[in-house]
């Protein structure tokens, strides 16, 4: 039987980053075969949305890999970031329930060799917490803002700060939060001009959007 996958070996040349694996819908056997192919080709590997039970099995065979339970990020080898590298991206997380998506963003950027910083628990229910960080937030080139419930935080940040803002709705909240749909619609209809919005719980997508922006800035 033919392999169920074909690695896009040319993606790094075309786009500046390697192919990334979405882990949620793949079996352990398929993921193991993929990882072996990547290792044989001496390529870095990033798997997103990988459930803990699958990660447990993979870590038995790939002992140098890294896995984070909260973000469900699995990395096998990744780019080293110098301590002298500037912190280019600020990740602003509304509440402690958003940590998983915020960390997915952080680890994706780390894998891509980009230094970032997460500022946790600064949602609009306690606006003074965000304002306490305002001067520091001005130092970043790009801001990624993660929020669930009514999804208001990106609009507030977009009304206070001039950088490109990437908004990430999360599936956090009761009832009519509708597993992130309310936050998504709120962000899409934001009155703060020029906010970019990714899909629900897509911290990886936000990180990759920021990575593309940085690559253009550096040119």
Automatic annotation (TrEMBL):
<dbReference type="Pfam" id="PF00731">
    <property type="entry name" value="AIRC"/>
</dbReference>
<feature type="domain" description="PurE">
    <location>
        <begin position="87"/>
        <end position="219"/>
    </location>
</feature>
<protein>
    <submittedName>
        <fullName>Nickel pincer cofactor biosynthesis protein LarB</fullName>
    </submittedName>
</protein>
<dbReference type="InterPro" id="IPR000031">
    <property type="entry name" value="PurE_dom"/>
</dbReference>
<dbReference type="InterPro" id="IPR039476">
    <property type="entry name" value="P2CMN_synthase_LarB"/>
</dbReference>
């Amino acid at each position: 039987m033919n392999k169920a996958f074909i690695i896009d070996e040319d993606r790094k040349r075309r786009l500046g980053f390697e192919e990334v694996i979405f882990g949620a819908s793949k079996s352990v056997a398929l993921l193991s075969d993929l990882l072996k192919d990547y290792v044989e080709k001496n390529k870095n590997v990033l798997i997103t949305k990988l459930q803990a039970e699958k990660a447990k099995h993979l870590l038995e065979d790939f002992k140098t890999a890294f896995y984070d339970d909260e973000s469900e990020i699995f990395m096998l080898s990744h780019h080293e970031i110098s301590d002298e590298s500037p912190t280019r991206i600020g990740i602003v997380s509304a509440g402690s329930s958003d940590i998983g998506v915020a960390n997915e963003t952080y680890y994706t950027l780390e894998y891509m060799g980009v230094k970032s910083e997460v500022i946790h628990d600064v949602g609009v229910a306690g606006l003074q917490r965000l304002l306490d960080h305002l001067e520091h937030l001005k130092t970043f080139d790009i801001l990624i803002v993660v929020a669930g419930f009514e999804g208001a935080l990106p609009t507030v940040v977009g009304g206070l700060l001039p950088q490109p803002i990437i908004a990430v709705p999360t599936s956090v909240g009761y009832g009519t939060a509708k597993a992130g749909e309310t936050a998504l619609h709120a962000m899409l209809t934001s009155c703060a001009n020029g906010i970019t919005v990714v899909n629900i719980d897509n911290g990886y997508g936000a990180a990759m959007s920021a990575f593309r922006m940085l690559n253009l800035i550096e040119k």
